[in-house]
Amino acid sequence: MKAVTLTALSISLLSLFAEAAPKVPRVTNPRVYGPQALAAARKQAAQSHLLSSSYAAAPQAAFNEKYACSDAATSSAAVILDSRTVPTDPDANIWASLTNDEAAAVIAFLHSDKASLNLTAAENATSWDNAISVVDLLLPNKTEALVYLDKGGPRPERWAKVSIMYGATEEPYVETIAVGPISTDNSTEMAIANLGWQTSKGEHKIRVWNMDEDRFHKYTLNISASMQDVVMDLIGLKAVGDDDDTASTWGTDPVWQQGNATDPKIIRWVGYWANIEGFPFDSQTLLPQGIYFEVETTGRDPSKWKEMGWLYNNVYYEDKAAFRTAWSQPGFEKAAQRNTYGTWTATDRQGEPLAEDAKARPVVIAPEGQRFSVDSARKFIQWGSFSAYMGFSRDTGLRLFDIAYDGQRIIYELGLDEAIASYSGNDPVQAGTSYLDTYYSFGAYAFELAEGYDCPAGAYFFNSTFHAEEQSRTHHNSICAFEMPMDYPIQRHSSGSYISITSNVALIIKSVSSVGNYDYSLSYIFYLDGSIETRVQASGYIQAAFYAHNEDFGYQIHDGLSGSMHDHVLSFRLDPDILGVNNTFAKHSIVPVNQTYPWSRGISRPGMKMVRSVVETEDDGALNWPANGSEMYVIVNQDEPNAYGEPRGFRIMPSLGSGHVVNIQDSPNLLKSQSFATHPLYVLQRKDSEASCASPWNNYDTGNPIIDFSTYFNGESLNQTDLVLQFGLGMLHVPHTGDLPNTVQTTAQASIIFSPHNYLLSDPSRRTNQQIRLDYDSSNARVVSNIERFGASPAPNWKYNLSDAYPTLQNYRGDVTVRKFPYDPLQPFGDT
Ligand SMILES: [Cu+2]
To answer: Residue 237 is part of which domain span?
Structure first.
């Protein structure tokens, strides 16, 4: 029976493989959709579409009508807020990402004579041009935002944050500038402003050491071609730059810097990975081949680059001649195993079916319709006592702002700042890989969510848009919001005469970013007791290592495969405002005591007691989570005691996992660009000039980052001042056989909870209708004497069409791209 099933499976997969190769050429390294590769991919896409040669700016409304891809939500289940709760200012979301019109206005200005930048249109730019890379909202300074939000002051101006790649020089760099105030109707003049004040470096500018990726790729393929006979003999694959190549060559990231400041040397290692062209599953990172070579690519002239050593089977050869000589000797030792794609790298169903599993799966539905309010245009959401605004950026994706509880702000800003995936291994490609994933982008890869799988059917979906390479791209339904009951009640108590029990309904706001081989799911979960959980989960394909000599760096998980170990640290910024901005970070420690009491007749008794302290300055702002939970970290407002004199506050604590830091604390790959990940929690004084723990462009020159988080700690007082927290979620990931074909989210997850702590006088979940008290006569268990439902109906008034519970996903769309320069919104590319 089993054999028959597997045979049938093989046939079905093989027939899939035999189909035509995917329409979109696969990139060699899945993470290579960095800013430069994006430009190349988009240029290719542009060439495949006939562009209108004359530039005619069409109104955005016409485009929206034609392509229905406005940034606003599309869910038909929307409950628009009534007039009492709609924000009175139509522009109330001061954190909303740039509209297409705004981005277009900024780009047109930067190409104008007035800006005098002499930029090349991104569509035509080569690596030797100066061109616009990313355009995003420059978040308003909190100090100005609060004057607007709380004091009726002027609305903060809309400014863009624009990164320009300066490639027309021997020393290429990317510089980020501010452009604004944005005017979409030319009614006011725009200007350029320096953003050096928002960096620790003093200038928002960084050297790009890998500017010539296209030449680098050709260079490495030429090297590979010169060794093709050896490569073919050892791994049976071809990597020479032909269309029918069966292997790709890529490797370390970020580039290594050796030498010194006056004589820098850029070193890169490249490995071989089997191609997956024609194979429908994105599994190249499971197919390392165990041959590596080293190049020095200092400077921009490939004729001056140097071929260096080769590594095979743990033997390092000084150059390819030495490798070839060794290979030609009788008795040359070859690795026994190789990695080839197959059913083991495919995610389709396989194996013995599970009993009863073909029946429809359980689903979450809201029988009487959506129970939260959304203002889709303003990206505002209100559920229970909570409300929040949403922002979105190319670098970090979804971000929440102005999270309020019963109308009182408790968090000004909550969102991801940076994500590290840092590997270790016996081979130089694994040892040299430490991804900084905002470089690749969370926003650009926040693809459409799958209704019924990522989020329940009937969830409310928002679109998101980002602007890069002079194009705007909208991901439909890339953020979802939904309620669901957790698998446990939030409260219960039963006695011999009654049971009181409350459903644990939570609101979840979620987005998923597929950054190359990995899918990061980011969720913000709001609970009835006032708690807010920030959760990350990972799935997708691991980046694995060739098995030979890697046994100390991971488990062998397939014939020729080692599950290359790595750290994930996703660093979030949480800006708490507990009853105002002036807060204090309190530590309430539980310590052992051995003392006498008036009643103990002079005998000392061991016990424990609470010792209160505060983190006075930033000098003590780098924190570890206390062992055994013996300390409570509470953000309090000492000027706002509750009725019992205790300061009102919110506690922060790990929920899933325990917070995570990098194990390689002095990473030779990340150098000064991982200083936010050496502790799981930091508290520091919040400043407009310290708006993030990292810049995505740190990846270009990790030893000289634009933002080095460690410089933020300079002894400033944390006593009743505006605080900001930076916390790390993640895990040490040592992949095992269960990571094949994809990592599963049951264990690859971590979360943190921000929870009211003496903030209210009792548990606010008592307010929900969704609870019951059932009185019964214990002497006769069959007699229920009373059922109290607290206003909830005993049976729903069904407004739900059950056939909607299983979306067909027939309408799943890709994203839509709009050219920005020349701006012609009627000519989208849709090149995903
Ligand atoms: Cu991992």
So the answer is: 2-21+211-345
